[in-house]
Design goal:
Elements (H helix, E strand, L loop, with lengths): L1 H25 L3 E7 L5 H12 L3 E3 H10 L3 H10 L7 H12 L7 E5 L5 H11 L4 E8 L2 H15 L6 H15 L1 H8 L3 E5 L4 H22 L2
Parallel strand pairs: 1-3, 1-4, 2-3, 4-5
Helix pairs in contact: 2-10, 3-4
Bound molecules: adenosine-5'-diphosphate.
The site of adenosine-5'-diphosphate (ADP) has 19 residues, from helix 3 and helix 4.
Length: 224
């Protein structure tokens, strides 16, 4: 009787450890980076993925706007760059984002919308997370003519101080110069997926979900 109870206890302990181990392998959080020019649709897809996957969507643009509205030191320093259509310096962005990543809700994965935007940010992020996350990078590609058209519509609705044609021109120029090289950076690491941003939002969402599901299947079949 005692022997039987002991063997049941040992079996339970064994199952507990094996499951715990598998869980540890499978639970490397998925981080989805959305790359794309201003108005390419990153924000729309981030909101969709947040709902669908039940993970937070972190937008550095939004975090900056919150800081700005709350008149924090960071917000006040950042606004001079934002309103010129320039990128906010890497150290400011990295400090702000890494602090947000310390919050518990990011443990099961998250979406990055508008980060990284420079090679320096991408490298600093990589150095911070190492191999603790599973990265998937989606580049939403759209022609400038479409981006301008969308910004015109958005400017009327949202009244963002940086959504004017002149500032958009500058944002696009800086995007091409500073952010577009990240496409090659992630492609060379075999992490990049391309999406045509001229398609409608629902079609893009289902294409992104198909990429994520493929990735999850590949991860499940490669873990021991
Ligand atoms: P959009 O993608 O339409 O340009 P965002 O809300 O992502 O809009 O960004 C607004 C502005 O905030 C940018 O033009 C830039 O000045 C600043 N910003 C946001 N994210 C970053 C970042 N990762 N690095 C530097 N600046 C950023």
């Amino acid at each position: 009787m005692v022997n039987k109870s002991l063997s049941i206890l040992y079996s339970c302990i064994l199952v507990f450890f094996v499951c715990g181990h598998l869980e540890a392998i499978n639970s490397r959080p998925l981080v989805i980076i959305l790359l794309g020019a201003p108005a390419s649709g990153k924000g729309t897809q981030a909101a969709f993925l947040k709902e669908k996957l039940q993970i937070p969507a972190l937008s550095t643009g939004e975090l900056l706007r919150e800081n700005r509205n709350n008149k924090t030191k960071l917000g006040l320093e950042a606004e001079q760059y934002i309103d010129k259509g320039q990128l906010v310096p890497d150290e400011m962005i990295l400090g702000m984002l890494f602090e947000r990543l310390n919050e518990k809700d990011t443990q099961k994965g998250y979406i990055l919308d508008g980060f990284p935007r420079t090679l320096g940010q991408a490298e600093a992020y990589s150095a911070k997370v190492g191999s603790s996350v599973e990265l998937l990078v989606i580049n939403i590609d759209a022609p400038d003519s479409l981006l301008f058209e969308r910004i015109k519509g958005r400017a009327q609705k949202e009244q963002r101080s940086d959504d004017t044609p002149a500032i958009l021109e500058e944002r696009l120029k800086n995007y091409r110069l500073q952010t577009a090289p990240l496409v090659e950076y992630y492609r060379s690491q075999h992490l990049l997926y391309q999406i045509n941003g001229a398609e409608d939002a629902a079609k893009i969402s289902s294409q992104i979900m198909a990429i994520i599901q493929d990735k999850q299947r590949a991860l499940a079949s490669s873990s021991p």
